[in-house]
Protein 1
Amino acid sequence: MSKKQFKTESKKLLDLMIHSIYTHREIFLRELISNASDAIDKRYYAAMQSGETGVDKEQFEIRLEPNKAERTLTITDNGCGMNAAELEQNLGTIAKSGTQAFRAEHENAEDIDIIGKFGVGFYAAFMVAKKVTVYSHKEGEDAAVWESEGEDGYTVKPCSYEPVGTKIVLTLKDDGDEESYGEFLEPYRLESLVKKYSDYIRYPIRMQVERSRKKEDSDEYETIVEDKTLNSRVPLWHKNKSEITKEEYAQFYRDAFHDFEEPISTLHINTEGMLSYTALLYIPKRPPFDFNSKDYKRGLKLYANGVMIMEHCEELLPEYFGFVQGLVDSPDLSLNISREMLQHDRQLSAIANNLKKKILSELLRMQREERENYETFFKAFGRTLKFGVYDKFGANKDFLKDTLLFWSRKEDKPVTLKEYVDAMPEAQKHINYAAGDTLAQVKKLPQAERVADMGYDILCLIEDVDEFALRILESYQEKPFKSVSDPDLDLNTEDEKKEMEKRAEEAKPLLTRMKNALGDKVLDVRLTDRLKSAAACLTGDEGMSVEMFKVLRSMPTGATLPITFHLELNPDHPVYAKLSTLDDEQLKEYAFLLLGQAKLIAGLPLDDPAAFTEAILKLM
Ligand code: ADP
Ligand code: MG
């Protein structure tokens, strides 16, 4: 059988592993043990799901077997195993996000130092082995063996490996020096590596060790061989908080949730009493690659007394906190609980209720005490929170409103709603906002100029969900939200308003002529006092801003959406003075141009760009 080549991505990672510097090499064991433990989890979980009763949790184990004569280290598990296709799929290509992202971030060899810190997976074996042989047997299928000596590819063949599970044989490198990797054949060294990296693994990690014992009724000693369990098997979350280091929390996170980065925040919650449970929650730094796809599975792992009973328990996390990773362990839950039962489980919803409050207060703590971290977090997941505000007709808006950040035009940085309100001048009645596609566009919005001139800050909204979220919030600390494009901005004194009404009355014939010229391209043409240096702008109608129009129109059913905006003219602009001197033909042209440029500034496409350009050229 000919050798198959690794996929390009895998090859690069493989390279990195083979040539990694010596000090990090010991982590290969952690990676292989973590895979073995995952595989046992999978087998046990599948057995429980299918109602198989013959599976005894006590039978599971991971075994280490150093062989000095052969220079091999063998790691065996009785987990789910892999068939030939899975060996090919899982070990011939990098499938997992964590590893892939790791590779993307650390393309060049200078980053090699980072290896020790991350979960780099199966290929870590090549840091210490010149040859890796994986025998695997999946229940009810034919066994197969995968073998590779690194860079020049791998083979997959049928074999006759009997037990269900996987056996990985590492033939250690020698680098011309017999002793160079011999340390990984020393039982004491292996034991200390297990203690250091894999102590919390819940399945026993066993190894045969030699011990000398005094013979009975004699002074002689004999050497006996016995099984020793190397790990304490206490799950991390069952340990005392004070005994867990930050690094241990982070390592567990990377292993269990396949992230390659440290979490931005960790919450370890212990509750006793009516409701007793332990929760270990992590807020990731970045969204997983599939976060916005429907493949993303929200939820926490659910354990009953240290045994996992569900991988993604959605009932434990509201959708708006769907980015949180972690687990809940409760002694009071039944092992064979079904999804339907869980949905109605009072205890579970009480836990969920507690957790969401803890998550909220952790987010607000971060916002106060670690602002930079919070802004990083909000960049990654702010959108999810804003959807949470909007979703379910705003049912959770009060709960979530203080988590929000929006870009402040004045401060030129993100601010909370509270910070905005606290900085409002006495005379300002509203929380003003402007919406657009980009920050640069919003800042230059003609409507924003006068509001800003009055010394009022403006929240710049650039995500499609933003304005929907604010509209459903309605107000914050009794200050209503108001778009700078709102028909009634209410910036003027009574006298100014009267003056404006007078001018509008005088302008009526002109405005009617313009509206006739534009037909149903606008709702109407009217005067505005919101503009300063611009001649015209588009504003939305009650309940529907131009930005919302854009969002809705981009949706599949949006093409037929009727036009719902007004063209507003600045009566103090020189162009306006000119309008009344024009004949109908010229006025039509001017109206068409004013509408076109207002559309461009608002980020709307022109109906007929060629005609627009032609009209400009003609004027020039
Ligand atoms: P990850 O553990 O992040 O998925 P790895 O590179 O460590 O990435 O492993 C790749 C895949 O190979 C695993 O996802 C798993 O499907 C499979 N695998 C590795 N080791 C074992 C094992 N001992 N038993 C069963 N499957 C395994
Ligand atoms: Mg792994």
Protein 2
Amino acid sequence: MTTGRGGADGAAPPAEARPLRVLFVCLGNICRSPLAEAIARRQAEEMGVADRFHFASAGTGDWHVGCGADPRSAATAQRFGLDLSHHRAQQITAAEIADWDWLIAMDRANRQQLLAMGAPPERVWMMRRFEAPDGNGMEDVPDPYYGGPEGFVLMYRLLRDNAHAIIEALLAQAR
Ligand code: 4NP
């Protein structure tokens, strides 16, 4: 993963000037987290705060490293005006955890994996963290990989509906 932070001279810029580094994390980095990244980037632009963030995405698994987004995710993105054609899947490893200010997990298994890699729990948020509980234990953005097309629409809706609150909360944390 190419995640280096800091300038060529190695000096870190002042905290308030540095964009928040936010990594969206799923299992394969071909379905959910690439779309989460694209949606967050668009919403941050719409909110006028794009310059406050550096968004990226990664998977906890390595099966798809170097591959493009899943065609079903890419088609869903395109349907809603987003372009995943430049996406290339990458894996997050324990050595790279410290490169990120915030890790946004799509599901509970992703979160557990990040914690097992040594990520500080307070820096690992669930994507649906700020959604009102629905009473069905639906804390996850469900993995659509093995399901039908409806799973991709649900994924888009959940990501779209939760990105704004995540962005607001990250900005509040930075103040
Ligand atoms: P993602 O979906 O984690 O949202 O990218 C998956 C992609 C691939 C696999 C599982 C989930 N897989 O088992 O290969």
